């Protein structure tokens, strides 16, 4: 039996910000922290990476210069207990310095591209966490089936009263929106 590395050993009160910040970046790229517990994420498939790349390019082409687009970055949703996610794509305030921690108040849109290993997190856990944190827009991109490969984009907008997402639209051929910015993209072009 192989011993777990020190950074994976459970702490009584969970991983803290100081613990997380002390981890090497190479480790942080592969984990999320949920209530102080480490969640190891499997490496995404090539098809997942293609969708993220193409959607990021489409977003970068249309967002105003006061917004920036990033992939696979830390998003600190809560300090105690630590809740740190790594969304596939984030559109956020471009004035945020690179060394500053990305927080919900900086985010305009968070996108998750669902993978077989992230179904529960992407459909249930993350939307609830992003909504509770006050992120205005959340999109989830899903493959219909492995054989079909057609994409569906589920778009959600935050209800400020309930702090929950309401469905803003379901796109199966083209995503065309004017809020939070103007974007039209054929979903077949994302694959």
Strand content: 25-35%
Q: From the alpha-carbon coordinates, what is the Rg to the nearest angstrom?
A: 17 Å
Helix percent band: 10-25%
Shape: globular
Strand order of the largest sheet: 3-6-7-8-9-10
**Main β-sheet description:** 6 strands, mixed
Structural class: alpha+beta
Residue windows where pLDDT falls under 50 for at least 5 positions: none
Order of helices and strands: HHEEHEEEEEHEEEEE
Number of contiguous helices: 4
Calculate the mean pLDDT score and round it.
92
How many beta-strand elements? 12
Spatial gap, N to C terminus = 41 Å
Question: Strands, helices and their partners?
Answer:
Elements: H1 17-21, H2 25-28, E1 31-34, E2 37-40, H3 46-62, E3 67-71, E4 75-78, E5 83-85, E6 89-93, E7 107-113, H4 119-133, E8 137-143, E9 151-159, E10 164-171, E11 174-177, E12 183-186
Parallel strand pairs: 7-8
Antiparallel strand pairs: 1-2, 3-6, 4-5, 6-7, 8-9, 9-10, 11-12
Describe the structure.
With 191 residues, the chain is α+β, with helices and mostly antiparallel strands. It has helices spanning 17-21, 25-28, 46-62, 119-133; strands at 31-34, 37-40, 67-71, 75-78, 83-85, 89-93, 107-113, 137-143, 151-159, 164-171, 174-177, 183-186. Strand 9 and strand 10 (164-171) form a beta hairpin. The chain is globular and about 50 Å long.
């Amino acid at each position: 039996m192989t011993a777990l590395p020190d950074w994976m050993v459970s702490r009584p009160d969970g991983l803290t910000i100081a613990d997380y910040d002390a981890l090497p970046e190479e480790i942080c790229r592969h984990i999320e922290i949920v209530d102080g517990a480490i969640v190891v994420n499997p490496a995404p498939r090539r098809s997942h990476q293609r969708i993220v790349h193409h959607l990021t390019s489409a977003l970068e082409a249309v967002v105003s210069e006061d917004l920036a687009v990033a992939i696979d970055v830390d998003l600190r949703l809560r300090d105690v207990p630590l809740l740190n996610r790594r969304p596939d794509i984030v559109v956020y305030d471009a004035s945020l310095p690179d060394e500053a921690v990305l927080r919900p108040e900086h985010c305009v849109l968070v996108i998750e591209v669902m993978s077989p290993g992230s179904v529960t997190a992407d459909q249930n856990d993350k939307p609830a966490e992003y909504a509770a944190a006050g992120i205005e827009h959340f999109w989830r991109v899903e493959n219909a089936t492995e054989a079909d490969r057609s994409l569906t984009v589920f778009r959600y907008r935050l209800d400020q009263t309930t702090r929950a997402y309401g469905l803003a639209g379901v796109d199966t051929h083209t995503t065309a929106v004017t809020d939070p910015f103007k974007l039209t993209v054929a979903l077949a072009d994302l694959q």
